[in-house]
Design brief:
The protein is mostly helical. The chain has seven helices and no strands.
């Protein structure tokens, strides 16, 4: 396993760093990637290169981190709204945030991943395509369609009021 680490640690680190632009986070997730790889070495079926397998593990760990971080940011937003003096604005902002989150969760998994990587990860369509194994064009179209669905649902909700 030491040889595997020496051979691929830089590849995994740069893969993560390119996506998160945070060297400390990239380092932490790289270490965690190799721990996960050790735990699941029996599941490696040699259908792809080792570097690809490791980067897939790293990608999933990064998604998990972003999802966890996103939940923490939502909780922090809720706490900051509570400390604000304008309760009407607090209520409206909380409802809007919850509404957007609910609509996002209703998207297909592929659309949700593209939106999260584009909005939360601030990645280019090319980077999203590389991570998700799709073309840059498909990533762009998927994001556009997801955005149109979210806008349509947001406008539909306003019509009901």
């Amino acid at each position: 396993m030491d040889e595997l680490y020496r051979q691929y640690s830089q590849i995994v680190f740069y893969f993560l760093y390119k996506r998160c632009n945070d060297p400390l986070l990239a380092e932490d997730l790289m270490q965690e990637t190799f721990l996960k790889a050790i735990e699941s070495i029996d599941s490696y079926d040699k259908s792809c290169k080792v570097s690809t397998w490791l980067c897939q593990i790293a990608k999933h760990l990064l998604y998990q981190h972003w999802a966890k971080d996103n939940r923490m940011q939502i909780e922090e937003l809720d706490e900051s709204y509570e400390s604000d003096s304008n309760t009407e604005q607090q209520a409206i902002a909380s409802i809007e945030l919850a509404d957007v989150w609910d609509r996002l969760q209703k998207l297909s998994l592929e659309m949700r991943k593209v939106v999260e990587l584009r909005v939360l990860g601030e990645l280019s369509y090319r980077e999203i395509g590389n991570i998700l194994g799709m073309s840059e064009t498909k990533a762009r179209v998927t994001f556009f369609r997801a955005k149109m669905i979210l806008i349509k649902e947001a406008n539909y909700g306003k019509d009901e009021l």
